[in-house]
Amino acid sequence: MESDFQRSVSLRPNRRADRSNLNPHSREAEGAPFSPEKLQVYPVKMLCRMGIIRLVLVVGIVWMLLILSALLFHVWSCQSSLAFLSAICNRQSKVFLMLDTMGLVPKPQHRCPIPVASDPDGVVIPKGRTPNEIVKDLSFVMEDDPVNNASLSVPLFGGHQTWAQREESFKVKSAMKVHCGFIRNGGAEMDPVDIKYVKKCRFVVASGIFDGYDVPHQPSNISPRSKRLFCFLMVVDEESLSFIKSNVTVTEDDKGGKWVGIWRLILLKHSPYDEPRRNGKVPKILTHRLFPQTQYSIWIDGKMELIVDPLLILERYLWRGKRTFAIAQHKHHRSIYEEADANKRRKRYARPLIDLHMKIYKYEGMEPWNARKSYPSDVPEGAFIIREHTPINNLFSCLWFNEVNLFTPRDQLSFGYVVYRLGGSFKFFMFPNCEYNSLFILHPHTREHSSKIEWVKNISEFEGKGSSLKETRGGLGLWTPYPGNLKTVVLPPTERTSKAG
């Protein structure tokens, strides 16, 4: 055992010697990590690797910052009051909708406060109705004249109003009978259960959804007093009712009434027009015909969410100034000819028919807006209308609707014309646009509206028997021979006052 130990000890120096005799090349071949050559190459490789990693990280961070900056700019441009920025913003884009869903889109900051009272319970409601000083007896044509019916067997909702009847309707008298929609068997029929319900509605917030573009948006900041006082009536067609039922909860009461939250759904069966935009004008303009017992109404478009108590709205815009009709000034345009030009550029209706519409108005003496007029604009923001249902206001609404029925469904083109034709008989309050934007939150449509007629560029596209581009129940005044010579009419030049308009 001892001899074995000595032999192992004697062998150790030899092994050390063997290791020391190895040359540097052999050590490198064995992979020695700390050779002089390795010490020079290793840091260079490490630096290259670290540099590439850092470059990738920097490029990724810069790219993410660019994307984030673009998204933030997109959101900011939508909130901006600058015309150019608001023009490039697309609120219907998937990016904007995604950011809005994530809560990254700030709520719009309005440029001016709305001077409403602070307490709905403190509002004093006027007793009685505003006196009828001009029109004391207003009635409506319910059936067309026999002369017209002899050749036209299908009843039209707006009737077959002649040019002579139209001209006579602008002559304000104490007792008047005018066309005002709802010709017998012309469509837009309400269910008996809804007719019974609306008879009790003295104060109404009305809205409408047609062709399934929206779902009802629940109003906010509504006081208990207003909930008891107002009927919230959402007018819909059959297609919209089906769309609403498939997307939100619709409840039914024990009397058969349909509800979405605070909104009572009012179905209009048998839509009177081919064009959904024109159907939407029925509850919007003819609110007094749909709800004849109503004394005060506030109309809001279906894509709006009301955020101000309706009792405070009536106090601010009607009762405080002893007014009966209020509507907002358009954000960009004052002249109907500017608005018509914008409608053509945005393809809101057939361009040649808009031109024909404007030529008739120009022939009949409608001049572009100027500062000598007693109101700030000929063009309103028609999505919000506040009114007391007085005879003169009802007459104005009938005549306004008749223009929409005869010509284009773009009601902003007709408003100022009817004001012009009634002279000083119709009084209204046109409030600032920034106040208008403080009354609601605007939601995007569920889908884009489009119809073939919007893309028509030339009148020849309408030619041919049975053309599918012609509306069959509305806009017939554009196809009825006009009694004047429109060939000599030259439309006023228009200047694009806003890139967003």
Note the topology.
Blueprint lengths: L1 H19 L3 H6 L6 H44 L3 H6 L5 H8 L35 E5 L4 H6 L11 H7 L5 E5 L9 E2 L1 H7 L4 E7 L14 H6 E7 L1 H10 L3 E2 L5 E3 L2 E7 L6 H4 L1 H5 L1 H4 L5 E5 L3 E3 L3 H10 L5 E5 L6 H10 L5 H13 L16 E9 L2 H16 L5 H11 L6 E3 L1 H4 L3 E3 L59
Parallel strand pairs: 1-2, 4-5, 4-9, 5-8, 11-13
Antiparallel strand pairs: 3-8, 6-7, 7-8, 9-12, 10-14, 11-12
Helix pairs in contact: 15-16, 15-18, 17-18
Computed CA radius of gyration, to the nearest angstrom: 36 Å
Task: Give the oligomeric state of the chains in this entry, treating copies of one chain as homo and distinct chains as hetero.
Answer: single chain
Tally the helices: what do you get? 19
SS strand fraction? 5-15%
Mean pLDDT: 85
Please estimate the helix content: 25-40%
Total count of domains: 2
Keywords: Membrane, Transmembrane, Transmembrane helix
Biased composition (Basic and acidic residues): 15-30
Biased composition (Polar residues): 1-11
InterPro entries: TOD1_MUCI70, TOD1_MUCI70_glycTrfase_dom
